[in-house]
Amino acid sequence: MRHSSRRRWSSALLDVLVWLILVVMLVPALWLVFTSVRNPVEVNARPPVWIPRELTLDGFKPLFGQATQMTGVIPFDRYFLNSAVVALVSTAIAVALGTMAGYVFARYRFRGKNIVFLGIMLSRAVPGIALSLPLFLLFARISQAGPLKLIDTPLGLIIVYVAVNVPFTVWLMDGFFREIPAELSEAAQLDGCSEWQTFTLINLPLALPGLAASAIFAFLAAWNEFQIASVLTRTVNSKTAPVGLFDFTGQFTIDWRGMAAMATVMMIPAIAFVLVVQRNLVRGLTFGAVK
Questions:
Q1: What is the signed CA dihedral for 131, 134, 137, 138, rounded to 10 degrees?
Q2: pLDDT for 169-193, tens place per residue?
Q3: Average pLDDT, stretch 186-205?
Q4: In 10 A of CB 183, how many CB atoms?
């Protein structure tokens, strides 16, 4: 009886702790949404007004073609399109390369395997801000030397984001493939499957949760990245949405409400993507990522 009561108290305490952590994590997002629908007086009020007393959608007008005195019209549709193209294409390439590389590291032995794997992981440890200037100089020289334009183009960002996300994908997929019994591959090859068929028909379907987890992390990393994009992009043809937030800053003023409105809209694709792969993501995190 006493043991059962203690278990209920522990469970209740754990629930309270989980909800407390959830509320703390949601506070910034809720404040962002509230700021986007406040009137201008409440945005800069002292002391702050926590709950908006009057709701208005005027902060969203610059995003949908209506000019304001502070910022004018923001080319949000172009920024949104650039972000979507860069994030989706770089995610698809990074997941494809990382999955095949993770399978090789998990299934095969070759000379220097541990050193190569460690080198790939260490490349992910370099901060993005440290990469931005060298990448700018390298891409500028490549653009000057030939027809390939990497500065101020979505292609340059795609190449960078693939290089940044592949190490994490390799690490994650290596863990997933190691959890799949090697006997399944051996049985498939005894039945006549080639190496490629063993990978695509046997191992890949079993590693789909890992692909979902890798895809969501790679997509969010590319969708929210700011530091490198702010250095490599210049015009509306290549700027992504995080860089476009600077359009709400002027010489002496900042349109906090408009910035919050744009950030709120930017959250929608990320939330939708997470909801679509939610089941596979949770299963993936508990299956291979904590190996």
A1: -90
A2: 999 899 889 988 888 888 888 888 8
A3: 88
A4: 8
245-260 per-position pLDDT tens digit: 888 887 777 888 888 9
Tokens of 135: 């990448």
pLDDT digits (tens, 9 = 90+) for 40-84: 888 878 787 888 888 888 888 888 877 666 666 788 889 999 999
Tell me the sheet residues that pair with 249. 254
- Is 152 in contact with 231 (CB distance < 8 Å)? no
Task: Specify whether the CB–CB gap between 140 and 234 falls below 8 A.
Answer: no
3-class DSSP assignment, residue 176 = helix
pTM score, whole prediction: 0.83
Identity (one letter) of the amino acid at 201?
Answer: L
**In whole angstroms, what is the distance from residue 68 CA to residue 70 CA?**
5
Note if the bond before 47 is cis, omega within 30 degrees: yes
Amino acid identity for residue 85 in this structure: V
159 pLDDT higher than 90: yes
Q: How far apart are CA 276 and CA 279, in angstroms?
A: 8
In order of 79, 91, 92, 139, 175, the CA distances from 157 in angstroms are 13, 12, 14, 10, 28
